[in-house]
Records
---
Amino acid sequence: MSRRYIVTNDKQPFSDAVLIDERTLYLSGRIGLKPGTTEVPGTIGEEAHFLMQDLRRILELAEMKLEDLVFLQVFSPDVTLWGAFNEVYRQYFSDPMPPRSFIGSGQLLFGAHFELQGIAVRDTAAGQD
Amino acid sequence: MPTASTRAFSPGLKLGDTIYVSGHLGVDASIGKPPADISEEARNVMKSVQATLGEGGLTMDDLVYVEIYCTDLSLYGAFNKQYVTFFHKPYPARDFIGVKDLLFGAHFEVMAIARRHASHAKKELSNTR
């Protein structure tokens, strides 16, 4: 049994993800800020794209892909953004889509409109290592 | 593992090497409101999680994912100051979500997942981008 922590900023009180038994990846919540800044992008679409790309970046550090996600939670202070979020989200997956919950939350850090958290499991059955 | 309770949930559920920890508050239900000191409430909620893990034979360092709900994001720093004292680095994955209300006027609720740490070796993968 093993665990591997993925840490891209050791000043934060959390790791970006932890990989258990080289198989199950628990990810920290991610938001769609402009990369390298603490600024929320000007449009919702841009923010959703940055968010999905950031999620993919962390998955890749564990040699995984978006399609390895088995469960996702999306938090948003504004549930009317559901449609706009999905328009972007759908571009990153093909069927079958992972299970998901979309929750109307209170405020998110840095004024983000979405926060996305997930759990991924490496697909060993597909012949990947 | 469930303890005798009139509530509709267990403090935690142990399934093999995994413990799913229910949301814990830093508020004594018999008092019905949080302590005046936010740091005390933050410590209480973390100690409460620690106690539930202890009942399952695990420690705070066995946590892989922690979900924190908070009614006031300005408490982020004060919460973190107490949070980090309960762990050795590297920290578990985490999500910190602003919410509207919590039971008993609590400011924090903490839910978590722990996995038994058989190897006692935390491997850290650092990437700077």
Note: The interface with chain A takes residues 17, 64-67, 71, 73, 76, 80, 83-84, 89-100, 113, 115-119, 121-129 of chain B (CB under 8 Å).
---
Amino acid sequence: MRALSFTALFILSFALPWWFVLILSVVYAFRYCAYELIVLGVLLDAVYGGALSSHIVPVVYTLTMTVIIFVVEILKPHLSLYKERYE
Amino acid sequence: MRIFSLLTRTTSRRRSRLRDRLLLTLVWGALGVLLLFTVGNGIGSAVSYVVEPIRVVRSWFAESTSLLPSYIRSRNVLIKEREALEGELEAAKSQEAVLQALRKENDELRSSFDMQRHGRILAGVILRPNETPYDTLLIDRGFSDGVIENSVVYSGDVAIGIVAQTFPRSSLVELFTTPGMRSTVYVFGPDTFSHAVGMGGGILRIGIPQGLSLGNNDPVVLPSVSPGIIGLVQHIESDESNPEQFGFVSSDVSIASLRLVSVDSEPLPQIDYERALEIIASASSTLFITVPELVEEDNTATSSEGADTEDGT
């Protein structure tokens, strides 16, 4: 299920606008909190950032995914949905 | 003793596990950035081959003329186009309103400029009825601009009043419809002179003897000026027990929205009867078109018809 979700997220990331990708990534992070999101960010930056000027470092997606996972990790203990895992 | 943290809502063991995960996240992020800096182009080329089918599908939806993409696209395009057109329509309507106002002002200025070339003084209306008491206007030209008391004031070709009082930079105009103002007018239709009395509110009342045919839309002119059209008869009150029938005259000029007027540079002249008739004849040629009568040539019936005409029956 996780592999299927990630595959769908991968395809949609290249087919849909960036804000849609952001929303799906947040949902995925809350569901699985897996580090493959950072890998997805790297791939997105590699494909879309290649068209950018050399003056700009294309790390937006990578950093965004890192921040998403970071925030999810901090928020999880405070969310009742995940509290039972910690009890 | 386990220490419970209020911030992380965990004990020290769980806190250390959380710290490890956070650290791992940062390491992954740093690795990702490092990869981008080192082999980013290579990764991009490789991934481009993989995502090519996705791009093909996306461009198919965006550009293909097949049934499904064109339906989805045209619907979206039509919705956007309709919203854009609605916005443009609103903007065009407001621009049209502005344009109409400008055209009207331009026409007023042109006609006033024409009046100026005929020796009249162009003046702007500062105050008008409802802002001033009675039917009076305050205009922005005074005796220092050449305005003289008792000169006629026009709106286009329609005479609307007389300059009652002049000041250095402004003048007070009494309209013919000011309550109590009396003037001598000529009424086409019954073709007779009459006294006109101002009733206020833009209405003039004329009295015509009973027996003369007074009809609606009969023009009323001021015989001492040329052109001196005041207005048309709008309403008639006729009581056979009264020796006089009354017609109420108003003009098409909307005094409440008047902005520009022209003032004669000479005062209202005192004229004699013959001069008044000349002016009336001139106004008649302006107001009416002469249609030649069709006369049947019948020699046998001419003499008896002529006698009847002379008798007036």
Note: DSSP finds four helices and twelve strands in chain B.
